[in-house]
Amino acid sequence: MACSAFPFLTPSEFEGACQAIADRCTSAQDGWSIRLLTKPGIGFRVTKYISGPETPDPRSQEDDPEALVRTQPSLQVDYDILLSSTYQVPVLYFGLRSHNHGPLGLDEVYQYVVPEQYKQELKNVGVMGGISMGYHPDSGAPAFFVHPCNTADAMAHLADAEDVTPGSYLLIWLGLVGHCVNLHVPREYFV
């Protein structure tokens, strides 16, 4: 059934689309996992591990060629997809953390999360850029988010209202917004 208020989503349409995605993506693969969020609001979380900065291993100073090789520590990115009550479109909140140093800032987001081809474009959106920082609507903790103000217009240009179900809406939106912050959900999970 098509979205009732395209290019917007109702809370029940969003909930159904989130449930469908969570049902399809039950196993952790490709370094990420997904789970449904139900309290206090509906949505889903994708957790992904990415390569981070190299940290010098004290053993690497040795002259011994048999010394252990340094490994890059991983960074954890938690992406929360929620429905904006203001804009009535999905919004992507995310946090980046190092296992050694805790939460990381906007400079590290651009360095490790945003693909090179999107960096300048995201920085040039509006006064503050396309990635903002605010309080996560469910946890109240500081979080980054991709601002949803142009989502409805973008969706209206990308899809025909008669053909867009809530599930396909969310998949199109993930392709549109997710790629700019390195959230590439494998296509085969949604076939």
TrEMBL record:
InterPro entries: Atg3/Atg10. The keyword Transcription does not apply. One of its GO terms (molecular function) is Atg12 conjugating enzyme activity. Keywords: Autophagy, Protein transport, Transferase, Transport, Ubl conjugation pathway. GO terms for cellular component: cytosol. One of its GO terms (biological process) is protein transport. Signal peptide: none annotated. It comes from the Eukaryota. Belongs to the ATG10 family. This is Ubiquitin-like-conjugating enzyme ATG10. It comes from Penicillium brevicompactum.
